[in-house]
């Protein structure tokens, strides 16, 4: 039969903080009323305000659920998710909307003067600066003779790039294998590709973990790689390499040994610890990238590979 689908809609116009906005979630068709609807705001469950069901002329069931979300100025990075489970489904139906799509934050305005605090003489020219802060979204609005000729919302996140910080750690397992964990932290946007290497040779078929969104809007992901060092006669070099968009790869390495505790190779990665990207931080990231490339090249030459 027809596969069930889900839709999630919000208000047609943006709303300022302090107001509640409705979201409607509809899913179906289902063979019975044995469905369950769950709302999530970020990772926390959110209560529904109403739920109803209906049937079509074929006797199939549809469910509609509504939720009210109270907006604050901090909701720019939040999401609302509708999740529907049913016996007909192999996995839940799910759809997510960003609250930034319905939020409008009025700017705070402040005017300053270059010679602030000094007495102004008659006919003296002064420079006044208007500061607009804490507003969302950024809107380009062009008028000609009181007629709007162009209007577009500018998404600043499409211009933002935060390179990841990559670290590797190890731990033992009951099976005797060494578990090497690669932690990729605070990057944006979320598109990345992770590769494990042993002795500087890439391993094929690496599973790509799903990034987890942080509260500040950046992303973090974690990948686990198991190594059997008991079969190795010498030290074993393991590297986690991360490709972030079209930027040079970022990586970190760990040297495992059968005779002693694993030794960590000092192979760092670029990436500021903050969730904002400035030109200074980006330039520093490029310098660190050069250092990483030199360090890893040295390690590979040391292994004669």
From TrEMBL:
Keywords annotated in UniProt: Disulfide bond, Glycoprotein, Membrane, Transmembrane, Transmembrane helix
Ranges of residues in domain Ig-like: 4-98, 164-257
InterPro entries per the UniProt record, alphabetical: Ig-like_CS_Receptor (IPR051755), Ig-like_dom (IPR007110), Ig-like_dom_sf (IPR036179), Ig-like_fold (IPR013783), Ig_C1-set (IPR003597)
UniProt keyword annotation of Disulfide bond present: yes
Taxonomy, superkingdom: Eukaryota
SMART domains on file: IGc1 (SM00407)
Regions that span the bilayer: 280-300
Protein name in UniProt: Ig-like domain-containing protein
Annotated organism of origin: Ictidomys tridecemlineatus
Lineage: Eukaryota, Metazoa, Chordata, Craniata, Vertebrata
